[in-house]
Amino acid sequence: MTKIAISQPTYLPWLGYFQQIAQVDCFVFLDNVQFEKQSWQSRNRIKDHQDNVIWLSVPVARHALDAPIMDIALANQRINWQRKHLNSVKTYLAKTPYLAEVLELIEPVFNTPYDRLADLNIALIRSVCWRLGLETPLLKASELGVSGQKADLLLAILQQLNADSYLANQGSRVYLEQERARFAAQGIQLCYQNWEHPMYHQKGQQFISHLAWLDAICYLGFDAHRLQLIT
């Protein structure tokens, strides 16, 4: 059985993104779909010791409304958002057990002059996968020679990779269930990620789940078993 997961290349994605990568034979970055402003594609969250959510947003250049993620350019490099993000991580996750290891991983990526958002996001995700010991092949949809919209695009990717199982996230269940017969007709089983985010001690009074991966790993480290990514 060849199980595939497909997801947009998001900025500093939540821990479950890597759990999904860990569960499949191949993972595809869906970089050829439309970019959405103020989405996970260009921003994510950490928290402070007073349980306030801190947004880390990547500034992007002006673009066509229907531009795909892969074509979105980063804003003028004179805007040093990288330093601001690093300073926020150092400030709000100060004195966490694994902050130094997280900074050691992300600083070289932030110091690389990427031109496009997708390249930055994918570089960060690849670095985390490497550090977690995840060896799942990571591909870009834009390099597979496929096209289409929504379910048509997903099916084209899955057929290109000879998949017989598609691991989707829970957010796509509603519309995918309407297409279940089409997937079945192509010999592809639909299944959904069913994973509970680990709870751990955070600064503050309230535990906030589904933050950027930085938060969990600053507290728990890069051990994939401790993070409950491998079951």
Largest pleated sheet: 5 strands, parallel
- Report how far the terminal alpha carbons are from each other: 18 Å
Strand portion, in percent? 5-15%
Rg over C-alpha atoms, rounded to the nearest angstrom: 18 Å
How many β-strand runs?
A: 7
Count of discrete domains = 1
Strand order of the largest sheet: 5-2-1-6-7
Note the total helix count.
8
* C-alpha geometry: globular
Would you mind describing this structure in some detail?
- This protein has a five-stranded parallel β-sheet with strand order 5-2-1-6-7, sandwiched between helices.
- The longest helix is centred in the middle third of the chain and has 16 residues, at 117-132.
- It has eight helices and seven strands; from the N terminus they run βαβββαααβαβααβα.
- It has one domain (3-220).
- It has helices at residues 15-22, 81-92, 99-110, 117-132, 150-160, 173-177, 180-185, 213-220; strands spanning 3-7, 26-29, 43-47, 53-57, 138-140, 165-168, 189-192.
- A hairpin with a 5-residue loop joins strand 3 (43-47) and strand 4 (53-57).
- The radius of gyration is 18 Å and the shape is globular.
- This is WbqC family protein.
Entry summary:
With 231 residues, the protein is an alpha/beta fold.
Features:
231 residues; alpha/beta; 5-stranded parallel β-sheet; two-stranded antiparallel sheet; 7 strands; 34% helix; globular
Helices and strands in order, then pairings?
Blueprint: E1 3-7, H1 15-22, E2 26-29, E3 43-47, E4 53-57, H2 81-92, H3 99-110, H4 117-132, E5 138-140, H5 150-160, E6 165-168, H6 173-177, H7 180-185, E7 189-192, H8 213-220
Parallel strand pairs: 1-2, 1-6, 2-5, 6-7
Antiparallel strand pairs: 3-4
Helix pairs in contact: 2-3, 3-4, 3-8
